[in-house]
Amino acid sequence: MIYWQLFWSFIQIGLFSFGGGYAALPLIQKQVVTVHGWLTIQEFSDVVTISQMTPGPISLNAASFVGTRIGGVAGAVVATVGNVLPSLIIVLTLAWFYFRYRSLKVMQGALYGLRPAVVALIASAGLAILFLALFGKAELPISSADISWFAVIMFVLAFIYVRVKKPNPIIIIALSGGITVLLGLIGIPI
């Protein structure tokens, strides 16, 4: 039964996550945190972090991680196949339609209309993760009393560094993790 639930949950995520991995984050969160309770919101945040640090699309990495956690290696395979199958079918179908009808204004209009929705999905997932990192919860309302000043300082410094130097993301992750570990080792509360 758990394999069917994993497959069905990730087939839904794969079917409706237009716009790539970041657009899939709210869908993954809803399925694995809200609907099934397989992960807590903190664990979900950890999955997103781990999925960013490993090669491959975030949605596939999350499917593999959640599948492994819930059903072992077989669960990882089932969740990953469920996540990929809709995309495979949709991309093959859309590629056929696109190459056959790409000059039609209806096709161009449909693609143009999807862009704002994709941006909204990505922004929603990004804000949920930002709120979790800075305030300890992913949803509104937030309170200034809940703010983690360490997280705010790390966010601002990382943001400035990324905008100015444009480093490899691995450097930002390694620096942030190293600073946090170092502060913890010397006893500074975070």
Short description, anyone?
By secondary structure, the protein is mainly alpha-helical. It has 2 domains: 2-142, no CATH class; 148-190. Helices cover 80% and strands 0% of the residues.
Would you write up a description of this structure?
With 190 residues, this protein is mainly alpha-helical. It has two domains: 2-142, no CATH class; 148-190. Helices cover 80% and strands 0% of the residues. The protein has helices spanning 2-16, 21-35, 41-53, 58-101, 105-135, 149-165, 169-185. Helix 1 (2-16) packs across helix 4 (58-101), helix 2 (21-35) crosses helix 4 (58-101) and helix 2 (21-35) crosses helix 5 (105-135). The model has no long low-confidence stretch (mean pLDDT 87).
Largest sheet: none
Question: Into which percentage range does the β-strand content fall?
Answer: under 5%
Assign an overall shape: globular
What are the low-pLDDT stretches, counting only 5+ consecutive residues below 50? none
Distance between the first and last residues' Cα: 41 Å
> What's the tally of helices?
7
* Approximate helicity band: over 70%
- Structural class label: mainly alpha
- Write down the overall mean pLDDT: 87
Number of strands: 0
Q: Could you say how many structural domains there are in total?
A: 2
How would you spell out the order of helices and strands? Answer: HHHHHHH
Computed CA radius of gyration, to the nearest angstrom: 19 Å
- Work out the oligomeric state of the chains in this entry: single chain
